[in-house]
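dumping this here before i forget
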Amino acid sequence: MLATHPLDPERLTSERPAPFPLADARATTADRDVIVGESDSLRYVMSRIEQVADTDATVLLFGETGTGKELLARAIHRRSRRRDKPFVVVNCAALPGALIESELFGRERGAFTGAHATQVGRFELANRGTLFLDEIGELPLELQPKLLRVLQNGQIERLGSPRTIDVDVRIIAATNRDLLEEARQMRFRRDLFYRLNVFPVTVPSLRDRREDIPLLVRHLIERHGRLLRKRIDAVPPAVMHAFESYDWPGNVRELENVVQRAIILSSNHTLELKDAWLPCAEPAAAAGGTTLIEVERRHILHILESCRWKIEGAGGAAQLLALKSSTLRSRMLKLGIARPK
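structure:
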């Protein structure tokens, strides 16, 4: 008879003190904003968020699709002084190129054919709050100077109007692209990249924090079990091993879809999982580089590369990391980081 892991709610969160709230599967609201995990890499990311949240600094979130960048953006907003003001989301990849300018900056009546009424843009809607620009790497090149102007001057112009409007908006941007490489390829403005890259945060992929998978699975079972009106009491070890072994190219979003499918098709209150439900389900190589030291090393490397290895002065890595240049050099030496020859 196959042994099972009972879904004890007390096991769903870490009992260790943490600088940020972890998920509690006993929550009764369908809150999709909860952040689940206790891995070193996630704790490091959350410590970075705690550092920047209560400022008005622009944050640039790097990470693969499905890693939860919008979740982290909402976490920053909730911890900021703007928490009671609007949080407005714009997916730059989802809006047609012909409409994105009026969506962002608004338009006056008669600005173009079909513009029968004045429309307030997302920047005005987010005034005194936070604007989350998801997939910022997809923003058309011709609109990037206008965004740069807003970031520099805090002013917008509605389409079809010469009048400037002052806006007070905190920007959080996210991308799954290497924006510095995009800038080198002339697909993204370099000056806009540097303006956005005030406080970069790299979001780890799910395969880089596999120890969080059991917590995520149990949390998703609790949440979607309620929504689907199905009770799941246990997860067989073989099923949990399959979850932990799969590489999850779609990250948490893919995991959530698979868990929902498994709940729907499971019987006898035990989670069932067929191998065919996991595309290309092959045991992945042992996860490496998930320690706090390795996460720190990768992050410092990313900042150094984005600054072209400039350490001191305005726009240097030490300034972006909020460290003294001597401290940064010491950390680089300890972590074995050296500029490529």
